[in-house]
Specification:
Helix content: 25-40%
Strand content: 15-25%
Number of helices: 6
Structural class: alpha+beta
Shape: elongated
Radius of gyration: 18 Å
Strand order of the largest sheet: 2-1-3-4
Distance between the termini: 14 Å
Largest sheet: 4 strands, antiparallel
Order of helices and strands: EEHEEHEHHHHE
């Protein structure tokens, strides 16, 4: 749930408001199992809204609640479980993947961090995630540069799904 959210960018003024206010008194409630699409022109605040919920941008005012409880505003203040429960799939697939890591390494990180998987169980889950996003098992050994833009975005989705989140932005 988002209550009266205000956020933006730039210097914070004496009134506590950012120089460029992007979100102004935004409220919404999303129930389990529900999907919400946010549409609008470029620069209308769609990404800023997702970044505030993910804890990447601090709100100037308002609240983000998850499971009825207020979420700490920034990622650094959140617990490991808070981080696991809310995952974000970034719009620019190219910049969201480390070009020096294989797809298997990219998918292994959240599986190790959030699920403690290793060895054969880790490898099996990597292959399951690739299958889930309709990528061949051979993708695991490839670097991001060897994938198309759509395939990279599927890897980003698989990485988010690896955490078994309650919310994907």
């Amino acid at each position: 749930e988002i209550r009266h959210l205000v956020a933006g960018y730039g210097a914070i003024g004496k009134d506590g408001q950012p120089a460029a206010r992007v979100l102004d008194d935004v409220s919404l409630k999303l129930n389990r199992g529900q999907a919400v699409g946010v549409i609008g022109e470029s620069g209308s605040g769609k990404t800023t809204l997702a970044r505030v919920v993910a804890g990447l941008v601090a709100p100037a005012a308002g609240q983000v609640l998850f499971g009825g409880k207020p979420l700490p505003t920034l990622v650094a203040q959140r617990t490991l479980d808070d981080l696991r429960r809310i995952q974000i799939v970034f719009q620019m697939a190219d910049t969201a993947l480390n070009p020096a890591h294989t797809i298997a390494d990219i998918l292994a990180r959240p599986l190790q961090l959030y699920r403690g998987l290793k060895g054969d169980a880790l490898q099996r889950r990597i292959l399951q995630l690739l299958d889930l996003v309709q990528l061949p098992a051979s993708s695991a050994s490839r670097l991001p540069a060897g994938l198309s833009g759509g395939q990279k975005q599927r890897v980003n989705l698989a990485r988010a799904l690896a955490a078994e989140p309650d919310l994907i932005l």
